[in-house]
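Budget justification aside, the reviewers requested a transparent look at the raw inputs and outputs of the sequence design task funded under Objective 1. We therefore reproduce one unedited record. The lines immediately below are the structure tokens for a 870-residue chain.
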């Protein structure tokens, strides 16, 4: 009877599954789940972390239980000066660490720089510029008293061009993104600040990423979206730049708001324990995105090391409650969280601290995120401790000149019928577009730049920063014309003033039209775009503006200040549009850098780090704009696999308007003499063997709970502390005003501290060290065949040969400066990883037997030289 019932149930279940898979609206990834992976790998101090690890263990061994918990938990939203802050360990001379965004500038600061956007400087394809930007922004954070810089961003990668935060990332190509993020991290950390690669993982859209935001926008969902990604795509695409970030030594990684395979990123043991700490051998600490944490002990067991900003919900109002803090102390004392795991969290945090030299270059925090006033409350949430909170320290150190140069060298010349460069001695120059002018509401209009006002130099959300000044294009062009003391200039910056526009444009020798398209983080909507863009067209009536000007002016130059690709269909092939420049989001020196390009002081040399297609559909996938799973978590199935951006266009054989890697110069270049040298290297060996047992650095007695009680000191309201409120544990976490903790599920093996098998593809930060063996060196001769000096970005692509491989994948590049007539050798290496595919069965990289072809070219579709790999 029982058996019968059981088989009836099984039958019903399999019928339900069959029905589900018959449902043609859902692909195979719909409802994917993440396999459990435990225990959480402990730091081993390898790959350059040996000394930091030793010192971290030394200090953590001296810490008490509550001191360690203090390190792992944010003190609560708006309780201290920074966007996030953890408790300190005063007894050992350790100050509370300050966490602040972003890699584009110190957010909510003053007298700091606003740097070239990452998505813009991605177009420079220049390792030195990336490093210098990282070093400069790291220095500004250090001088403001920041310990952890919450950036750079490499997730989103840029799966869909409308993704709201794509402007914060270098490129949707994993190799370009990986090389750029590694240089940026080295720069930030050489400046003495801990970098934090984010948002781990597959955080490809803003809409529906978290419940409170979705509610704010009128949707009723019970969980944030799930990004469902297959294993090979994960390794070959989304995880790829994180491997570079970890290999470059990033001290921190931030997990994201979204779910991956229906498990929240900050509680997902597969992505944190296995992929990040196992496969990638990450030695630093993982911290949660603000409010991306949905559990206590289980997230710690899944590999999270720090809860930020500490509160359970800060969007929904903070009340001093935390999944961590007191709950973590209780969890160790009641035997739920093994001591070694807490020791590991603290050791990872302290190892990152020593790794970048925080102990020797500490600066006390001298600004306050919550007010620009000199005087204010030190603890804003509680309205306590009034005094000087802002010292207004100018941390710019002359970075403006570098930003000007970086933004100019990132500009991409898309079209030029001989119109550029200008001489500055044109009879009458007419400038058009709201995007040319000083923001009427000031450069710092709207919190987190959440509106469109004047020229667009930075997107909105936590990647933005406040300007100390902003040079608009109109100011710079006017200075240029006036400085030359010849010629006239006028401007119409109202995009709907058609009669005035037409009158001026018809008289102009040259018309320069500035247009834009904006996007940002999902905390804010601008013109009903909830972070992500609703479309790929220009904002503020841009197409009609260009149309109006070009109808009467046969020398119309278009400058695009956009967050990513826009549809240029309506004007790109208009013969009256004589030049087009994509200038991205240039930061504070916007006008000066575009003037340097327009007037030929700098020859444009940037190349598109993304594809400009003719239609949004051409990109082969789209965001999920509306809940698609009832009230349950929206399902975002990454069915396109590795075929995003140019790989999608190549696969579907769709002609883009401007392909990935495309960009013109004021001069021309010839390519010749491709050579491939093979480098003998030893055979790839999977990492094997066992780890040591998890070190336990101290023995917390469970019988002296009195030691963990709230000490004799004032309690700051809403502040999150590690202490017990009662020696009765249950009462402590259930202190009347806090409520019962959810009793947390202990997954199998999660508390196991015995030696564990090593991961075959792991073994060192970034993965198996042999993945970085150089297998080939590819060289070619590049000649400047034109009349002007210029810089050429030479690109190395590979076809991996398999039936499911993209036509080509970018693997390396270099930017060469060449005088007219000069030739230089382009030389780039190919590593084992560059030539490998992820084998999902053996969970390791393999070089397949398929014949592989190497291409050297000027873009993803100008593959000028090619040869098969010997
Ligand atoms: C997600 O599910 C897919 C399909 O089952 C699987 O290939 C992949 O490894 C899973 N990834 C994660 C992170 O759980
Ligand atoms: C925890 O951090 C807070 C804030 O820095 C500090 O006041 C407190 O003394 C710390 N507790 C311990 C046990 O070190
Ligand atoms: C949201 O959905 C849940 C579950 O279906 C339902 O109980 C709740 O009433 C809904 N809330 C609103 C505001 O519509
Ligand atoms: C695209 O979005 C922008 C910004 O919201 C808006 O100005 C524009 O009108 C939209 N374009 C179309 C075709 O709807
Ligand atoms: C180009 O500009 C000229 C004026 O110089 C105008 O007569 C012509 O119609 C324009 N062409 C287009 C395609 O707009
Ligand atoms: C634009 O029009 C003017 C006069 O109408 C003419 O002199 C000039 O050659 C034209 N320029 C181009 C690039 O066609
Ligand atoms: C926990 O809190 C609830 C509600 O405040 C209360 O009913 C219960 O008795 C408390 N439990 C303990 C062990 O204090
Ligand atoms: C402990 O966590 C639970 C949620 O699991 C929460 O309700 C409770 O308020 C937390 N306790 C403290 C002291 O923050
Ligand atoms: C131990 O404490 C943690 C944190 O408060 C709680 O989530 C867990 O359910 C508790 N476990 C037991 C066995 O009491
Ligand atoms: C050959 O490979 C080894 C190991 O990666 C490397 O140290 C060496 O520099 C390479 N030689 C060349 C010429 O690339």
């Amino acid at each position: 009877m029982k058996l019968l019932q059981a088989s009836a149930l099984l039958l019903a279940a399999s019928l339900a599954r069959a029905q589900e898979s018959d449902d043609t609206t859902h692909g195979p990834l719909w409802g994917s789940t993440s396999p459990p992976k435990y225990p959480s790998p402990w730091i081993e101090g390898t790959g350059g972390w040996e000394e930091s690890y030793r010192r971290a263990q030394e200090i953590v061994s001296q810490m008490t239980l509550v001191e360690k918990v203090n390190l792992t938990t944010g003190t609560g939203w708006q309780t201290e000066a920074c966007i996030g802050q953890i408790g300190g360990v005063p007894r050992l001379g350790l100050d509370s660490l300050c966490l602040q965004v972003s890699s584009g500038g110190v957010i909510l600061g003053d007298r700091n720089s606003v740097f070239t956007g990452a998505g813009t400087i991605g177009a420079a394809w220049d390792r030195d510029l990336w490093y210098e930007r990282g070093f400069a922004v790291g220095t500004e954070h250090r001088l403001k008293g920041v310990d952890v810089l919450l950036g750079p961003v490499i997730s989103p990668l840029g799966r869909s061009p409308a993704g709201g935060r794509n402007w914060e990332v270098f490129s949707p190509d994993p190799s370009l993104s990986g090389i750029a993020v590694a240089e940026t991290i080295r720069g930030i950390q050489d400046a003495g600040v801990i970098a934090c690669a984010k948002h781990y993982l597959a955080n490809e859209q803003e809409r529906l990423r978290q419940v409170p935001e979705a509610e704010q926008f009128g949707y009723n969902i019970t969980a944030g979206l799930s990004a469902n990604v297959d294993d090979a795509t994960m390794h070959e695409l989304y995880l790829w730049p994180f491997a570079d970030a970890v290999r470059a030594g990033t001290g921190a990684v931030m997990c994201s708001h979204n779910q991956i395979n229906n498990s929240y990123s900050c509680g997902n043991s597969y992505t944190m324990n296995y992929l990040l700490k196992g496969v990638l051998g990450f030695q630093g600490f993982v911290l949660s995105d603000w409010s991306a944490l949905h559990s206590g002990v289980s997230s710690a067991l899944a590999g999270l090391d720090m809860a930020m900003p500490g509160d359970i919900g800060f969007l929904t109002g903070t009340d001093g409650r935390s999944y961590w803090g007191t709950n973590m102390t209780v969890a160790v004392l009641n035997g739920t969280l093994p001591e070694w795991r807490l020791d590991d969290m603290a050791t990872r945090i302290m190892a990152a601290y020593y790794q970048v030299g925080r102990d020797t270059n500490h600066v006390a925090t001298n600004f306050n995120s919550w007010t620009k006033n000199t005087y204010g409350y030190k603890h804003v949430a509680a309205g306590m401790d009034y005094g000087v909170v802002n010292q207004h320290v100018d941390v710019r150190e002359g970075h403006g000149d570098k930003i000007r140069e970086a933004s100019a060298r990132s500009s991409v010349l898309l079209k030029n019928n001989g119109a550029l460069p200008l001489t500055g001695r044109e009879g009458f120059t007419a400038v058009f577009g709201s995007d040319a002018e000083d923001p009427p509401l000031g450069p710092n209009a709207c919190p987190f730049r959440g509106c469109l006002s004047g020229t667009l130099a930075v997107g909105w959300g936590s990647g933005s920063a406040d300007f100390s000044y902003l040079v608009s294009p109109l100011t710079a062009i006017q200075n240029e014309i006036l400085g030359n003391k010849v010629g006239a200039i006028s401007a119409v910056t109202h995009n709907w003033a058609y009669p005035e526009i037409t009158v001026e444009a018809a008289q102009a020798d040259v018309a320069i039209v500035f247009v834009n398209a904006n996007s940002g983080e999902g905390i804010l909507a601008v013109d009903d775009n909830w972070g992500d863009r609703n479309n790929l067209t220009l904002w503020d009536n841009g197409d009609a503006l260009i149309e109006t000007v070009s109808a009467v002016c046969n020398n119309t130059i278009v400058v695009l200040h956009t967050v990513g690709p826009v549809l240029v269909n309506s004007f790109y092939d208009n013969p009256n549009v004589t030049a087009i420049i994509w200038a991205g989001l240039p930061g504070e020196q916007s006008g000066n850098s575009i003037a340097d390009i327009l007037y030929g002081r700098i020859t444009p040399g940037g190349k598109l780090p993304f594809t400009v297609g003719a239609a949004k559909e051409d990109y082969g996938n789209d965001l999920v704009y509306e809940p698609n799973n009832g009230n349950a978590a929206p399902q975002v199935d990454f069915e396109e696999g590795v075929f995003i951006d140019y790989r999608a266009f190549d696969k579907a054989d769709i002609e883009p308007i401007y392909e990935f890697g495309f960009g013109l110069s004021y001069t021309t270049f010839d390519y010749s003499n491709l050579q491939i040298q093979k480098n003998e290297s030893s055979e790839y060996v999977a990492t094997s063997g066992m780890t040591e047992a998890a070190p336990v650095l101290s023995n917390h007695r469970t019988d002296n709970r009195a030691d963990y009680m709230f000490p004799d000191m004032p309690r700051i309201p809403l502040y999150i502390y590690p202490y017990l409120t009662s020696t009765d544990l249950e009462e402590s976490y259930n202190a009347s005003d806090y409520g019962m903790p959810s009793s947390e599920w202990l997954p199998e093996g999660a508390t196991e501290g015995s030696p564990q098998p090593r991961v075959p593809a792991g073994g060192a930060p970034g993965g198996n060290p042999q993945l970085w063996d150089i297998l080939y060196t590819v060289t070619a001769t590049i000649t400047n065949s034109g009349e002007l000096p210029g810089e050429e970005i030479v690109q190395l692509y590979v076809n991996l040969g398999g039936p499911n491989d993209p036509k080509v994948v970018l693997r390396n590049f270099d930017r060469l400066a060449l005088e007219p007539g000069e030739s230089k050798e382009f030389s780039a290496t190919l590593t084992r990883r560059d030539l490998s595919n992820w084998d999902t069965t053996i969970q390791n990289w393999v070089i397949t037997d398929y014949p592989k072809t190497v291409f050297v070219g000027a873009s993803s579709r100008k593959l000028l030289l090619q040869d098969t790999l010997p």
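Confidence is low (pLDDT under 50) at residues 1-22. The pocket of 2-acetamido-2-deoxy-beta-D-glucopyranose (ligand 10) is lined by residues 679, 681, 773-774, 777, 829 (CB under 6 Å). Computational costs for records of this kind are itemized in the attached budget.
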